[in-house]
Amino acid sequence: MSETVTAATEAETFSFPQPRTCPYRPPAGYSALRANGPLAEVTLYDGNTAWLVTRHADARRLLTDPRVSSERASDGFPIITPRLLGARWFRTLVTMDGEEHSMYRRMLIPDFTAKRTKAMQPDVERIVDDCVDRLLAATPPVDLIQDFASELSSRVIFHLLGVPTEDQATFQERSVRLLRAADSEEAEGPLSELVAYMDQLVSSRGSGTGTWLLDRLSGEEVAKGELDRGDLIRMAVQLLVTGQGTTAQMIALGMATLLEHPDQLASVRADPDTVPAAVDELLRYLTIADMAGLRVVTEDIEFHGRVIPAGSGLILPYALLNHDPETYAEPDRFDVRREPRQHFAFGFGPHNCLAQGLARMELEVTFRALLRRVPSLRLEKPLKELRVREAADMQGVYELPVTW
Of 23, 63, 191, 382, which sits most exposed with the smallest number of CB within 10 A? Predict the structure, then answer.
């Protein structure tokens, strides 16, 4: 007979999120969570509890289980930071389930196909080269995040959406403010400003004659009544904020990780054909979107002889799962020739990242350009001296000073 999991279980209770001390390594506390077994009870900042999954194979199964929901507004959904309180009601593709989620996802697929990504590559290469030009024109040291990676990732998303060049600086400033917000109150202002601007931008479209995402969806889906205008605006804001923030950190921390592992850096320099595999290993090793695996259980689920009751919060920390020794040999070793398969850097299941092809291409183009054009790039400060982003946020740092 299965044992129902309750707050009264005798298993040790951990706090979550676990604090970070290293910019590119998972929290040290993840080791104790894994040693606790496949399931651990964790206590959140507000005193609520949730259930945390520690094994890669279990997470793959649960992320495809229809009884596991992404609806943030549902009772029991694990709110791991006060900053997420205001976003509970901001419905986007990542907070939808079932047929509703599938319908909206199908509308976005044409903008993220392999063919579309390949067609965008020359534009991405142009943007990257221009950003490297600006970097080299500056006087070092410079902040690789704010002075390079953030601008680059923003411009790629602006290009995808069709944001006019003259509006991009203001748009980027608001998205950065949102990403840096400490709580829901501080996030409310920039989020409202982004929504208002996007509303105006959508109003200026609608003919369907443009080539970018907003042109197509405004002209096709909204005009036909298939897509709600408000949902289009929220989709665009989500693409901007998540794409800009995670990609900027991946670029900056990816280069920092290579610089901190000179043998691996030398391997990539010696054989540029290894860049795609190196990008995948960086995605696994860093797992910027560690906190994207938050779910709520809608029906009882039997799990390793227990029953997780409906209404329970479920946490699948992607960085912990991407360092599972049962899946990856020596998971804490950075190896650019590993070619890691089935990692969770882009999630898994129905909510796997739709833009992962674009993200991979952007990262490959950027790392190739930096390695070729700035061969003497080096860290201005040791990584251990940098301020690490809060535990409940994406993996990363607030600044990354470099010189060359």
Answer: 382
pLDDT for res 10? 41
Q: What is the pLDDT of residues 131-154, one digit of tens each?
A: 999 999 999 999 999 999 999 998
Cα distances from 75 to residues 27, 47, 185, 288, in angstroms, run 28, 15, 21, 27
Strand ordering across the sheet containing 306-308: 3-4, 306-308, 301-303
In which band, very low, low, confident or very high, does the pLDDT at 270 lie, cut at 50, 70 and 90? very high
Q: Of residues 184 and 298, which shows the higher confidence score?
A: 298
Tell me which H or E stretch contains 307. strand 306-308
- Phi, psi dihedrals of residue 227, rounded to the nearest 5°: -125, 130
Coil vs helix vs strand at 308:
strand
Q: Six-digit token pair at 169?
A: 């600086």
Structural contact between residues 59 and 344, judged by C-beta atoms closer than 8 angstroms: yes
pLDDT value of residue 11: 47
Q: Label the pairing between strands 39-43 and 13-15.
A: parallel
> Are 164 and 210 in contact, with CB atoms under 8 Å apart?
no
The angle that helices 168-180 and 184-203 make with each other, rounded to 10 degrees, is: 150
What number is the average pLDDT over the span 34-61?
A: 96
Task: Give the pair of three-digit tokens for residue 150.
Answer: 């953030």
Terminal-to-terminal C-alpha distance of the chain: 64
Which 3 state secondary structure label does DSSP give 376? coil
According to DSSP, residue 147 is labeled I
H/E run at residue 241: helix 229-260
Q: Prior bond to 141 cis, omega within 30?
A: yes
Chain position carrying tokens 């950075």: 334
